[in-house]
């Protein structure tokens, strides 16, 4: 125990799985570089409960803080992990920072996301889709019909589609072929929850994974897959500003106000 240790805290979406992957890669690289065992060993907490117990051993409420820079991500109780650590936070940061202990207790933040129901799908299945949204605890805070312009349709497509001219033309032709229905939805962890419910872009793959996924139920091909959903918090903010520039029928949440600033 004569050597010091570095203790760090990280926060992010799917934080435990992400950090585990990073540490696995670190371990593999270390084994290739040396056989002496002299390089640092890394240990991480595996559950939120263990994380909290370890955090209070090393930090006080005044020390353990995070700045507003990180409020652009979705935060959940399960998004914190500990990796043996110790560092101090400057006073200039602390005066405008928010305690990460508070996040552990308060849980997930209420966020907004955007769901676009593609042409022909919403007119035939709207009642069922709205019922599913209600069952998943989404609150509808914005809704409008829209005829997509080609430039806007292009901005909604994944990068891999844009690399295939034939697929790009097929997607854009379909998205601009009729009226789409755009919904702005609100709930804790809204972005990730919606992405998880929609499933893969390919309805056949979604069907193989889980027939209850929405693209498995309503999609028939990678082009006619039923839905577009914001894939990240940053994209959700972009989509809200794009489709609802006039505002939403809900009280603004803190994260959205921070984005507008």
TrEMBL record:
Pfam families: NDK (PF00334). InterPro entries: NDK-like_dom, NDK-like_dom_sf, TXND_domain-containing. Signal peptide: none annotated. SMART domains: NDK. Residues 110-250 form the Nucleoside diphosphate kinase-like domain. Belongs to the NDK family. This is TXND3 protein. It comes from Neopipo cinnamomea.
């Amino acid at each position: 125990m004569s050597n010091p240790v570095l203790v760090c805290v990280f926060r992010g979406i799917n934080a435990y799985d992400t950090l585990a992957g990073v540490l696995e890669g670190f371990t593999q690289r270390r084994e290739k570089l040396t056989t002496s065992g002299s390089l640092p060993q890394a240990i991480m907490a595996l559950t939120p409960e263990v994380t909290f117990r370890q955090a209070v051993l090393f930090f006080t409420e005044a020390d353990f803080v995070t700045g507003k820079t990180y409020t652009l991500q979705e935060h959940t109780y399960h998004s914190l992990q500990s990796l043996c650590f110790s560092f101090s936070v400057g006073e200039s940061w602390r005066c405008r920072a928010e305690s990460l202990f508070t996040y552990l207790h308060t849980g997930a933040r209420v966020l907004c996301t955007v769901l676009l129901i593609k042409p022909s799908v919403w007119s035939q299945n709207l009642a069922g889709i709205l019922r599913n949204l209600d069952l998943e605890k989404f609150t509808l805070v914005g809704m409008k019909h829209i005829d997509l312009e080609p430039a806007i349709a292009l901005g909604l497509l994944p990068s891999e589609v844009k690399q295939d001219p034939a697929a790009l033309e097929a997607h854009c032709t379909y998205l601009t072929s009729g009226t789409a229905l755009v919904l702005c939805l609100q709930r804790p962890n809204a972005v990730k929850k919606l992405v998880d419910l929609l499933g893969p872009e390919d309805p056949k793959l979604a069907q193989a994974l889980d027939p209850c996924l929405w693209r498995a139920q309503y999609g028939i091909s990678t082009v006619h897959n039923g839905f577009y959903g914001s894939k990240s918090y940053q994209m959700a903010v972009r989509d809200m500003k794009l489709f609802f520039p006039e505002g939403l029928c809900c009280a603004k949440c803190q994260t959205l106000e921070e984005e507008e600033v």
